[in-house]
Design goal:
globular, 0% strand, 89 residues, 4 helices, 44% helix, mainly alpha, Non-ribosomal Peptide Synthetase Peptidyl Carrier Protein, Chain A
Length: 89
């Protein structure tokens, strides 16, 4: 996976995933540590890193890399360029 993807890096670091894990495998069902407490912490990290807010309806759909990516893109966040600001390296 291209390490320039800031969402992949955030999720990989947050859940301590192997760097060779494919993004499509990053789902709440496949990651045992992705429980309700982790979800609250993950939302806070996403909001802080990408400088975006999620409403309750959106939060209910953020259950995988792909769903998070799609929601960020809908909010105008580009994941194809290097993020600046609060995004973790």
């Amino acid at each position: 996976m291209d390490d320039s993807d800031p969402l992949f890096r955030l999720l990989r670091d947050f859940f301590n995933l192997p760097s060779d894990m494919p993004p499509q495998e990053i789902t709440q069902k496949k990651i045992g540590a992705w429980d309700s407490l982790a979800m609250v912490q993950l939302i806070a990290d996403l909001q802080g890193s990408f400088l975006v807010d999620f409403d309750l309806e959106e939060i209910g759909t953020l259950r995988s890399y792909e769903e998070i990516r799609d929601t960020l893109i809908k909010k105008g966040i580009s994941l194809t360029r290097t993020m600046t600001g609060n995004v973790r390296s």
